[in-house]
Design brief:
Layout: H1 13-23, E1 27-29, E2 36-38, H2 40-59, E3 63-64, E4 70-72, H3 73-77, H4 80-86, E5 92-96, E6 99-107, H5 112-122, E7 131-140, E8 154-164, H6 167-187, E9 194-197, E10 209-216, E11 222-232, H7 234-239, E12 242-244, E13 250-252, E14 254-261, H8 263-272, E15 289-293, H9 300-316, E16 321-323, H10 330-339, E17 344-348, H11 350-354, E18 357-362, E19 368-372, H12 376-401, E20 403-404, H13 410-423, E21 429-434, H14 438-448, E22 451-456, E23 475-480
Parallel strand pairs: 3-7, 15-16, 15-17, 20-21
Antiparallel strand pairs: 1-2, 4-6, 5-6, 7-8, 8-14, 9-10, 9-22, 10-11, 11-14, 12-13, 17-18, 18-19, 21-23, 22-23
């Protein structure tokens, strides 16, 4: 493998990110504009994210289904706001088998229309409700600017689609799934998220209300990591999704949709990575422990005998362990696996064998520990749990340090950004007051490139005046530059 040294995050965070995900072999570029190849470690990260979320979805009564990737143009035309929101990004199929199609077909940007059509056929009575379906799929959005994992022409995601008899139940579902995302991000990804409602200008096309989880990346920018939408009866009316209620009256259902995508992989990299490369939380890391033999070749047989025993013991404890027995120097291997973000390194040499111990090195802190080989799996499990907790706490501390609560007007915000740029520091996020006027929100965006991330359910402080017009604030809003 080529030289592992990366551009520093401080020098060029974007360059660092691209170098890190490529050198760690998470992805490669595909010969199709804006598309990437998921290499095994990158895809396994997605598989582990998928498994953790899928378990949570099923525990709340959802089942998986699959719908066609091709969507007739007429479906997209039925919900006017929806199609206007996606039209610029839609790739179309217009010809098949050498003949022009009677109706062109979109590669799905999302599946509300296809699923709405099918729900209109499946739902007839209140006895058919609620419908709680999820789909793991690929979607297409022909983005002008792409960034691997975060924004690509084709990406992988899940999209939940539910139908309910009344508004209260549908809104409860919307909130339940948003909190499911936030809990998963905190407990599995070791990333704290702000949950809240999107402003109208940031709302999903066709939704009544959109809610999001927002995470802070190491460059101080925000990443919208997941969304949950209360669609009201918009799609139900557009697609004729009606049911006969208990009083024998025909009514439209209320629907929701919610989703996260492979941009969660990008979040993992950008929240936890450092100048050495990736740093993966143990719960999601494809490899939790890398074992490296050390010492002179003449004593290698002695080391390898114990090496094999230790490997088997860790594997039996269901710890994801790999060995690196390549003919490279130990130092080269240490750098290689630190760059790949493996949470724990195990070193075993002749002296270790003689003293019935090994050396464990934490990726998160660099701390070296000499530990007994007796009951090693339990020691490793405890260390992995400690690393997971520490990574979450570190991400929380970083977010707290770069969240600014005492900026009260637009001039202060511009001065704050200018000062950060002059010092080469991070502008981070700002909690600003907002009167609810779209023009004030637009002015912040135009003059600072800060956008509204969400209106947090539990803001750390309540802002009294609008950041722009100084009128009474109806909301406290997180604002930041974002991916």
């Amino acid at each position: 493998m080529s030289e592992n040294k990366l551009t520093s995050q401080a020098a060029d965070f974007s360059a660092w990110y691209i170098e890190a995900i490529q050198k760690a072999e998470l992805m490669d570029y595909a010969p199709v504009r804006g598309c990437i190849i998921f290499k095994p470690d990158g895809y396994e990260l997605w598989e582990r994210i998928q498994a953790g979320l899928d378990q949570r979805f099923k525990a709340t009564g959802h089942r998986n289904a699959y719908f066609p990737m091709l969507i007739p143009e007429s479906f997209l035309q039925k919900e006017k706001e929806h199609v206007e929101g996606f039209n610029p990004e839609l790739p179309w199929v217009t010809e098949a088998g050498g003949e022009k199609l009677e109706e062109k077909l979109a590669l799905r940007p999302t599946s509300e229309t296809m699923i709405g059509h099918m729900y209109s056929r499946w739902i007839q009575s209140y006895r058919d409700l609620p419908v709680l379906l999820n789909q793991w799929a690929n979607v297409f959005r022909w983005e002008k600017r792409t960034l691997p994992f975060l924004r690509t022409s084709e990406f992988l995601w899940q999209e939940g689609h539910t139908a309910h008899a009344d508004e209260v139940e549908a809104r409860e579902e919307t909130m339940r799934m948003l909190e499911t995302y936030a809990e998963f991000a905190a407990s599995e990804m070791a990333i704290p998220m702000w949950t809240g409602q999107k402003t109208p200008s940031e709302r999903f096309a066709g939704a009544v209300d959109t809610y999001s989880i927002e995470g802070m990346m190491k460059d101080g920018k925000a990443l919208q990591a997941g969304t949950s939408h209360f669609l009201g009866q918009n799609f139900a009316k557009a697609f004729g999704i009606e049911f006969l209620d208990r009083d024998n009256l025909r009514k439209h259902v209320y629907t929701t949709s919610w989703g996260v995508s492979t941009r969660l992989i990008g979040a993992l990299v950008m929240v936890h990575g450092d100048d050495k490369g990736l740093a993966l939380p143990p719960k999601l890391a494809p490899t939790q422990v890398i074992m490296i033999p050390i010492g002179p070749p003449k004593l290698r047989a002695k080391v390898m005998e114990k090496f094999s025993t230790v490997f088997s013991a860790l594997q039996a404890a269901k710890i994801r362990v790999r060995t690196d027995e390549r003919e490279e120097t130990p130092g080269w291997k240490f750098n290689e696996w630190e760059m790949r973000g493996v949470p724990l390194r195990l070193e075993l040499g002749p002296r270790d064998v003689d003293s019935n111990q090994c050396v464990l090195v934490r990726r998160d802190t660099g701390e070296k520990l000499s530990v007994s080989l007796d009951d090693l799996p339990a020691t490793v499990e405890a260390l992995l749990a400690a690393i997971q907790t520490h990574m979450y706490e570190k991400a929380c501390d970083f977010r707290s340090q770069h969240s600014h609560l005492h900026i009260d007007n637009l001039e202060q915000l511009k001065a704050h950004i200018a000062e950060a740029e002059a010092k080469g520091s991070l502008a981070g996020w700002v909690l600003g007051g907002w009167c609810g006027n779209d023009l004030c929100e637009a002015r912040v965006r135009e003059e600072t490139k800060f956008t509204s991330r969400n209106i947090p359910f539990m803001p750390p402080v309540h802002k009294e005046k609008c950041l722009v017009c100084d009128e009474k604030a109806t909301h406290s809003v997180w604002m930041a530059r974002a991916y």
